[in-house]
Structure formats: structure tokens, C-alpha cells
């Protein structure tokens, strides 16, 4: 317990840094490329690939939208994501095959306060438990902390989605609490939301863990 308290105090002291004006424009959405995944700004041209990647109903179990029933519905899904002023949506592309694997977003972006969230994320069944998802998180966090100079990155997930909670915790994020009756699920039920965050001083250790996980994942058979 003492070491945990010391860690919290160290973070509290060290994150009180000054954030100047010499930071990349937060309105610019980049293309982020790695060995396994390329994250590029979502466009209508990605709709067909997303529809093919998202055919497994299990992908949509905990998402805030229903599974698109056909390609026109996926096209509307993409259009809404692009039009949302609160989001910076990406398509996740499998580098090896060139196929669209899924999507993810920065959202709740507040440049003034140097904070943003990562979410609206899903990948097709073919890419789950592979290095693609790990590298995607690594690229997003690296850009947020090292290019934008973010002081905080946050995540939100359904309280029933234990798998997502464990995955976020493995990133090195800290569970902060629960927002009660925070969302309405597609089935009309009320959703409590678990919130997590990572601060800039926590990023170097998290980056090392993610990089090691990526090396391990690359050794596993697909």
C-alpha cells in the first residue's frame, strides 16, 4: 500500500508541468503507420471493408450502436462518425493484407486542457488477439503524448464489459470510477460506464510494456 501511495504522490507532483503553445495543431488528423497496422482518417471508401470486417455479431455486443445490417447501413455509420464534431475517427488497416480490420477514434478532444479520449473502437474477429490491436493503441498513445503533448488520455467502457476493462488495465491505465446511468444501450437499458485514464508521467512505463507485448504477439502464429 505504501508503494502505491508513493506512486500516486510522485505522479501528482510530476504531472504539474507547464504546457506551452508550441504543440502540433490538435485539429490535424494524421495517418499513423506501424508494422502491423496503419491508422488513416476514416473516409466513405472504408465502408465496404468495415462491413466485411464486422460480420461477426460478437464484435458489436458492447458497442453503443447496433450492427449495420447491410452496406448502406455501414455507409451511414461511417458518415455519422465523420460528421461527429467530437470525434477524430480512424480506419484500422491490416498492413499485411491491406484489408480494413476495424475502426477507432480520438474523441472528447480538448486542446486547451491537453486531454483526449480513445474509444469507438472495434476490430473484426480475424484480428482479435493479434498484434494489430496492441500496435494500434501504441500508435495512438505515442501520438497523443509525444506529438500532441497531451497530459491525459482517457477511456470509457460498459460496466458489464469485463474483457474491455481488463484490456484497458493492461495498457497501464488507472481505473478512476463509475459514471452511473451514463448511457442508453442500443437495447434501451441504462448503462453504467467505467472510466480510466493515463497521465503523461505514466506513459514511458506503459510504452515499454506495450512494446514488449507487441514483440511477443509477433511471435505467435496467426
TrEMBL record:
The keyword Transferase applies. Keywords: Transferase. It comes from the Bacteria. Residues 37-201 form the N-acetyltransferase domain. GO terms for molecular function: acyltransferase activity, transferring groups other than amino-acyl groups. This is Protein N-acetyltransferase, RimJ/RimL family.
Amino acid at each position: 500500500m505504501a508503494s502505491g501511495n508513493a506512486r500516486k504522490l510522485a505522479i501528482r507532483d510530476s504531472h504539474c508541468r507547464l504546457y506551452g503553445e508550441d504543440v502540433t495543431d490538435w485539429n490535424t488528423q494524421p495517418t499513423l503507420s506501424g508494422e502491423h497496422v496503419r491508422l488513416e482518417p476514416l473516409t466513405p471508401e472504408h465502408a465496404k471493408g468495415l462491413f466485411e470486417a464486422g460480420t461477426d455479431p460478437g464484435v458489436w455486443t458492447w458497442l453503443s450502436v447496433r450492427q449495420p445490417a447491410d452496406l448502406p447501413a455501414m455507409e451511414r455509420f461511417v458518415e455519422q462518425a465523420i460528421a461527429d464534431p467530437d470525434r477524430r475517427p480512424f480506419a484500422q488497416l491490416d498492413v499485411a493484407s491491406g484489408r480494413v480490420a476495424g475502426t477507432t477514434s480520438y474523441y472528447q478532444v480538448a486542446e486547451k486542457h491537453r486531454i483526449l479520449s480513445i474509444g469507438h473502437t472495434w476490430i473484426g474477429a480475424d484480428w482479435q488477439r493479434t498484434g494489430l490491436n496492441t500496435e494500434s493503441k501504441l500508435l495512438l498513445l505515442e501520438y497523443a503524448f509525444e506529438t500532441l503533448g497531451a497530459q491525459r488520455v482517457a477511456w470509457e467502457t460498459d460496466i458489464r464489459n469485463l474483457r474491455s476493462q481488463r484490456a484497458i488495465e493492461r495498457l497501464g491505465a488507472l481505473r478512476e470510477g463509475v459514471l452511473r446511468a451514463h448511457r442508453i444501450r442500443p437495447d434501451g437499458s441504462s448503462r453504467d460506464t467505467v472510466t480510466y485514464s493515463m497521465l503523461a508521467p505514466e506513459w514511458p512505463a506503459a510504452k515499454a510494456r506495450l512494446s514488449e507485448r507487441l514483440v511477443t504477439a509477433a511471435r505467435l502464429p496467426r
